[in-house]
Amino acid sequence: MSEPVLEIRDLRKSFGALKATDGVSLELHPGQIHALIGPNGAGKSTLIHQIAGSLRADSGTIRFLGQDIGGLDMAARARLGLARSFQISSLAQEFSALRNVMLAVQARHGSSFHFFRQVSNDKELTEPAMAMLERVDLAARAHVPAAELSHGERRQLEIAIALALSPKVFLFDEPMAGMGPEGSKRLTSFLDGLRHEAPMLLVEHDMDAVFALADRISVLVYGRIIASGTVDEIRSDPDVRRAYLGEAA
Ligand SMILES: Nc1ncnc2c1ncn2[C@@H]1O[C@H](COP(=O)(O)OP(=O)(O)OP(=O)(O)O)[C@@H](O)[C@H]1O
Ligand SMILES: [Mg+2]
């Protein structure tokens, strides 16, 4: 099999006595959408935050493209190509949609842009940022402040920001949340297309989307992966049906 793009080994994170991540190992391979499912409070977002670098693991390793990234902060991980969209929005609310994406383009280029430079008319930033908004169907709303976008539009904007990082991996935490059936369908086919761009670790409660998209599914319960396999394997796993899919044994 190909080398994993992302390789997590025995990751652990406690909040006081609570083991939110309890020895998680997981691999993401090129071309794959790997879905991470599990009940509320299982530790899915906590895991995403540790991979993105917004939360430090207590122990264990995270290797990205062969490099141990455990010691890098979130900005450094983003520059390496780890793009994330969190369950809790991290948009700059007062900035326009375009400006939010421009900040991501700028972050991607790191120090090649000066912090104090007037960026609003800078074509090197506006053009790629506008192209990302077009891809997610948000170009018409480019100049609207993030705070005034609808919930669905904000999710689209977060994906545009992830795209602007020219990612080598996508980390998505519940991109479908609050989308409604039509929006979810559109987003599902959009995410399907992204698999050719970079592999994806996808946390999602929408099981229609998960079953449609995932090459592999891991099931997290109380901070532990209780099963990992193909869609068919996970659907027919009695432990998973009991623990997560809500069926009587
Ligand atoms: N900063 C924190 N401090 C203390 N406890 C936390 C913190 N963040 C998360 N937790 C706890 O860790 C556990 C895992 O939370 P997490 O948000 O990762 O779950 P989740 O699987 O993403 O749930 P959901 O599906 O509801 O989003 C929960 O019990 C949560 O209350
Ligand atoms: Mg969560």
Automatic annotation (TrEMBL):
Pfam families named in the record: ABC_tran, BCA_ABC_TP_C
GO MF entry, a single one: ATP hydrolysis activity
CC annotations in GO: plasma membrane
Keyword hit for Membrane: no
Nucleotide-binding listed as a keyword: yes
UniProt keyword terms in alphabetical order: ATP-binding, Nucleotide-binding, Plasmid, Transport
Domain ABC transporter: 6-247
SMART domains to which the protein is assigned, alphabetical: AAA
Domain of life per record: Bacteria
Gene3D superfamilies assigned: P-loop containing nucleotide triphosphate hydrolases
Protein name: ABC transporter ATP-binding protein
Organism for this UniProt entry: Ensifer adhaerens
